[in-house]
Backbone:
């Protein structure tokens, strides 16, 4: 009986020359790696290769991702020829939180979330919430599954995204287009989905002029951008457990347009009261709260005003 012939060995098979390979191989177009992303690190291992790459994002920044290419596994075909298979593991969703910003952007982590702070952007640092610990504690202690948070003056998402990450349903209102872009960007890098109401809340529907200045943008007569106005009552919310209002002096108008919501939902309230609104406007806001069964107190004070918190007291 004749001995069975050994299959061809690896060393007898010609190896392809990468410099002479065609641009199309087995029907698959060849793509130069540097056109897809930029290799920043490569580490060899006996059974696999780790690639750490920068993936370009739509806004011009990049996100790190780890790609693991396993060593080829050889299979022996019935005709005696060798066949190879590679396993590729890409983990963009895991490592994107380790992203590195490009350009003049700082990235910091607070409360388990990542925050972009564009250099020179007015008030971007406020997203870290190091300047108002009592407000952060008051609002944060009320976030959780099953809760509804109305964030009027959401800015770049400091409270909305913290609430969302803890299972709270959020209604964020922010009229400044530049703030909205950064809010959505902060949501993106934390893998959160948020529906921003791109308007200002007031006492009536219509439009108004917004003076853009980052975290301190405000409704005013100064030159700015025209933004839509809505009332909180127009949403006809059936549940609102927590209401934050920080709109740089437009607070009274917000509450004028929220009377039905307060009477129906009785949310806990935190409102930033600026000194420049004057005693008359402050008293009018107090009256709206009292008319709806609220008791209130100042939580703290700072150079430009105070933070007021209010709780609904059930009628006897």
Residues:
């Amino acid at each position: 009986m004749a001995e069975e012939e050994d299959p061809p060995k690896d060393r007898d098979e010609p190896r392809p020359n990468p410099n002479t390979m065609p641009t199309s191989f087995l029907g698959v177009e060849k793509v130069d790696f540097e056109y897809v992303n930029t290799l920043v690190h490569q580490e060899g291992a006996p059974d696999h290769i780790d690639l750490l790459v920068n993936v370009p994002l739509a806004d011009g920044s990049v996100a790190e991702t780890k790609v693991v290419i396993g060593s080829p596994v050889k299979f022996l075909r019935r005709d005696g020829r060798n066949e190879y298979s590679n396993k590729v593991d890409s983990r963009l969703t895991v490592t994107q939180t380790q992203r590195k910003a490009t350009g003049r952007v700082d990235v910091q982590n607070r409360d388990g979330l990542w925050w972009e702070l564009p250099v020179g952007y007015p008030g971007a640092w406020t997203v870290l919430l190091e300047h108002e610990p009592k407000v952060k504690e008051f609002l944060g202690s009320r976030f959780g599954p099953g809760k509804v948070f109305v964030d009027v003056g959401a800015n770049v998402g400091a409270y909305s995204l913290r609430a969302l990450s803890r299972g709270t349903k959020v209604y964020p209102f922010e009229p400044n287009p530049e703030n909205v872009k950064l809010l959505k960007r902060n949501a993106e890098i934390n893998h959160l989905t948020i529906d921003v109401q791109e308007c200002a809340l007031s006492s009536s529907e219509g439009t108004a002029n917004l003076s853009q200045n980052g975290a301190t943008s405000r409704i005013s007569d100064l030159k700015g951008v025209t933004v839509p106005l809505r009332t909180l009552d127009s949403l006809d919310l059936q549940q609102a457990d927590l209401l934050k209002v920080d709109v740089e002096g437009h607070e009274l108008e917000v509450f004028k347009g929220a009377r039905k919501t307060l009477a129906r939902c009785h949310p806990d309230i935190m409102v930033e009261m600026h000194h420049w609104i004057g005693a008359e406007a402050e008293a009018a806001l107090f009256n709206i709260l009292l008319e709806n069964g609220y008791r209130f107190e100042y939580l703290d004070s700072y150079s430009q005003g105070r933070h007021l918190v209010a709780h609904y007291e059930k009628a006897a």
About this structure: Confidence is low (pLDDT under 50) at residues 7-43, 92-100. The chain has two domains: 10-98, 105-312. DSSP finds eight helices and 20 strands in the chain.
